[in-house]
């Protein structure tokens, strides 16, 4: 069986490479000639742990190829995956399906013999039906089925997610297409991976519902963190107690600066808009979208408050600009809202990220990019942790304190312990936990309060 993967973005490249690892021959096609040339020369356009070496292996074993020739790819493939982007439209935020529909038209003109066409892109409910309508309109005599097969890949862990998924969802009511997809995913049967066969509409809704639910858990804990700060609680202990309840689980209960990335912001917005369109408002999801956007600005204000109400002229060191660790993706990252807000308030930004600085530089200006955390902290009035990279989890606190102008850390990811920071002599502000003030500073403040 031969697989054609249309689109060499994050989903297409990871999925195509993993299918090749299963033993299929995969052809990845893209209309971006520069990207294809790069891939043929061993240049991987995205950062994903393990992907580069896995691609090298598939190329070496002649199981994957990269081309701009869509017609040849369609004609030689038994299964054709559509994995192109569906970004939000600038005008209204709705998922832009232009690329998906353009590919459907192009594929239609190349069909010769039975093909299974699979929408792998994240798309609103009803898209697979529209893809089928477009293809039949373009080529009434074509023999094909359209299947919905949403991806559930986490950036930074995508290869493991593909090889050992929690489940595979396949939307089709064609017995013929189901048999083909069973063969495509047969390598997963050894792991007893649940494969859910359902309708196309159900599969499409499942993708959005899954991401919206996870985004809701994050947003819920962020609001609980605010409550903990106001009432004197500890959000990490709350999360642990909640997570021990099997009905809830401990995943996605970490408070922070809000969610970002290529999926959650776009998918929650798309689900909310789909609900409005169909007359079934998704009010919880609408609130999640709104609260999450506000969250990022509130985190910037948290930094300003920590600096005494003003960051005018102050150097602010920022650790991490990617929306999460193990990726160079900055799409809708909290940093893209937090940094400009601090700059508008008069702060001078120095920043470091192990992988995402080149991407972030396309969106942020007047940032002093450094090559390590200590260079960022040098003479800084405050150090802000936005992304919880492993490289930031065991910094030498004595060196940090020595090089900073003020021993103040605002940790938006709670990666350090409260007692640890107290012992190191930092004023330490985290999310949903009581602020730690070094004893000498606390004594001064108490004396000042008594004088008043």
Given helix and strand content, the structural type is alpha/beta
**Numbering strands along the chain, what is their spatial order in the largest sheet?**
3-2-1-4-5-6
What is the name of the CATH superfamily of the largest domain?
Answer: NAD(P)-binding Rossmann-like Domain
Give the C-alpha Rg.
25 Å
Mean pLDDT: 94
User: Helicity level, as a percent range?
Assistant: 40-55%
Number of helices: 18
Tally the beta strands: 14
- CATH topology type of the largest domain: Rossmann fold
For the sheet with most strands, the description reads: 6 strands, parallel
Unreliable spans are: 442-452
CATH architecture of the largest domain: 3-Layer(aba) Sandwich
Description of the structure:
There is one protein chain. Strand 4, helix 5 and strand 5 (115-119) form a beta-alpha-beta unit. This protein has 18 helices and 14 strands. A six-stranded parallel beta sheet has the order 3-2-1-4-5-6, sandwiched between helices. Strands 11-10-9-12-13-14 form a six-stranded parallel beta sheet, sandwiched between helices. With 452 residues, it is an alpha/beta fold. Residues 442-452 have low confidence and may be disordered. The chain has two domains: 2-198, NAD(P)-binding Rossmann-like Domain (Rossmann fold), CATH 3.40.50.720; 214-452, Rossmann fold. The longest helix has 32 residues, at 200-231.
């Amino acid at each position: 069986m031969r697989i054609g993967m249309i689109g060499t973005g994050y989903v297409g490249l990871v999925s195509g490479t993993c299918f090749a690892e299963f033993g299929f021959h995969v052809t990845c096609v893209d209309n971006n000639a520069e990207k294809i040339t790069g891939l043929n020369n061993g240049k991987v356009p995205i950062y994903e742990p393990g992907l580069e070496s896995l691609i090298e292996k598939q190329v070496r074993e002649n199981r994957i190829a990269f081309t701009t020739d869509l017609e040849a790819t369609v004609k030689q493939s038994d299964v054709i995956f559509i994995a192109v982007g569906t970004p939000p439209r600038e005008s209204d935020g709705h998922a832009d399906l232009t690329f998906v529909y353009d590919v459907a038209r192009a594929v239609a003109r190349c069909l010769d013999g039975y093909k299974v066409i699979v929408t792998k892109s994240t798309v609103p409910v009803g898209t697979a039906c529209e893809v089928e309508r477009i293809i039949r309109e373009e080529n009434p005599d074509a023999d094909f089925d359209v299947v919905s097969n949403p991806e559930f890949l986490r950036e930074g862990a995508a290869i493991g997610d593909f090889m050992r998924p929690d489940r595979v969802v396949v939307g089709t009511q064609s017995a013929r297409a189901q048999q083909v997809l069973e063969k495509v995913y047969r390598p997963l049967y050894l792991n007893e991976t649940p494969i859910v066969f359902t309708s196309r509409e159900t599969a499409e809704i499942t993708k959005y519902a899954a991401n919206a639910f996870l985004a809701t858990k994050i947003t819920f804990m962020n609001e609980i963190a605010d409550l903990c700060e106001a009432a004197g609680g500890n959000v990490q202990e709350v999360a642990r107690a909640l997570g021990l309840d099997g009905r809830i689980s401990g995943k996605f209960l970490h408070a922070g600066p809000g969610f970002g990335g290529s999926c959650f912001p776009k998918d929650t917005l798309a689900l909310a808009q789909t609900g409005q369109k169909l007359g079934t408002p998704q009010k919880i999801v609408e609130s999640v979208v709104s609260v999450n956007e506000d969250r990022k600005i509130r985190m910037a204000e948290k930094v300003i408050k920590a600096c005494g109400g003003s960051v005018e002229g102050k150097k602010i060191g920022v650790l991490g600009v990617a929306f999460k660790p193990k990726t160079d993706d900055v799409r809708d990252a909290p940093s893209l809202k937090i940094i400009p807000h601090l700059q508008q308030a008069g702060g001078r930004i120095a920043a470091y990220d192990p992988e995402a600085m080149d991407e972030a530089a396309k969106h942020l200006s007047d940032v002093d990019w450094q090559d390590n955390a200590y260079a960022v902290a040098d003479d800084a009035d405050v150090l802000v942790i936005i992304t919880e990279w492993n490289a930031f989890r065991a910094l030498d606190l004595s060196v940090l304190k020595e090089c900073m102008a003020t021993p103040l850390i605002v940790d938006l990811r709670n990666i350090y312990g409260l007692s640890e920071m107290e012992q190191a002599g930092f004023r330490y502000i985290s999310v949903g936990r009581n602020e730690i003030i070094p004893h000498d500073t606390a004594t001064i403040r108490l004396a000042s309060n008594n004088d008043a």
